[in-house]
Design brief:
Belongs to the short-chain dehydrogenases/reductases (SDR) family. Pfam families: adh_short_C2. The structure is a single chain. With 248 residues, the chain is of the alpha/beta class. The protein has one domain: Rossmann fold. It contains eight helices and seven strands. Strands 3-2-1-4-5-6-7 form a seven-stranded parallel sheet, with helices on both faces. Helix 1 crosses helix 8, helix 3 packs parallel to helix 4 and helix 4 runs parallel beside helix 5. The protein is globular.
């Protein structure tokens, strides 16, 4: 299936590994020029090398205010503009209500909410001006079904979903779609580091009885960027093998 993306330009944040990398790889396969970012120069350069096809890379620590906007600006300079934005960031530290202090919320919101806001502020005006654009943010299934011990992530990503839904309504008349994807458990290096041997029990709770494949996740994001998905906006799409048991 031709997604109609050949020649488009994408900025994919936090894409040196995991789901961000899988998304960048899916877009490259569709003929998209891609710029990625990561906080580690060696990992960013290596990831861009594996992606090939002239992929550019930027060092950006999205925990720092302004780094998200700088990443987009540099991507625009490298490619002559940005048609597709995939906001993404590492999750904030784990913890429960009693373990997390009030001072930890602001950094979590910067990382998992405001970094995306800043990237959108940098990228969306150009999309509106040209009459075409795609924003597909990587959030978490925790938005629908809060995950125990992740109160910071649950809080920040829920707020981000509200921002994205509002933005989608405002820019829809300009040919720009804004959606998010909500991953459950996918077979990434970070997941195995976090869960360790406990991942087996978690997989048993997934109706699909398996971890998600990063390449399938990337393909779903690429579809939301496609011409065929031009009427999909304001959606928050769970990619979780059936983990979410709610009716919405």
């Amino acid at each position: 299936m031709d997604l109609g993306l050949d020649g488009r330009r994408a900025a994919v944040a936090a894409a040196t590994g995991g789901l961000g990398y899988a998304t960048a790889a899916a877009l490259v396969t569709e003929g998209v020029r891609v710029t990625i970012c990561g906080s580690d120069p060696a990992r960013a350069e290596a990831a861009a090398g594996r992606l090939g096809a002239g992929t550019a890379w930027v060092v950006a620590d999205l925990a720092d205010p302004g780094e998200g906007e700088r990443f987009v600006r540099l991507a625009q300079e490298a490619m002559g503009g940005v048609d597709i934005l995939v906001p993404n960031a590492p999750g904030p530290p784990a913890g429960t209500f009693t373990q997390v202090g009030a001072d930890q919320y602001a950094p979590a919101l910067e990382l998992s909410l405001l970094s995306t806001v800043r990237m959108c502020l940098a990228a969306v005006p150009g999309m509106r001006e040209q009459g075409w654009g795609r924003v597909v943010a990587i959030t978490s299934i925790a938005v629908r079904q809060p995950v125990p011990n992740l109160i910071l992530s649950n809080t920040a990503r829920a707020g981000l979903t509200g921002f994205l839904k509002t933005l989608a309504r405002e820019v829809a008349p300009d040919g720009v779609t804004v959606n998010s994807v909500q991953p459950g458990l996918h077979d990434t290096e970070r997941l195995r580091q976090v869960w360790g041997d406990g991942i087996t029990a978690e997989v048993a709770r997934i109706p699909a009885r398996s971890l998600g494949r990063p390449e399938d996740f990337g393909a779903a994001v690429a579809f939301l960027c496609s011409e065929s998905a031009r009427y999909i906006t304001g959606a928050a799409v769970p990619l979780d093998g059936g983990m979410n048991q709610g009716l919405q």
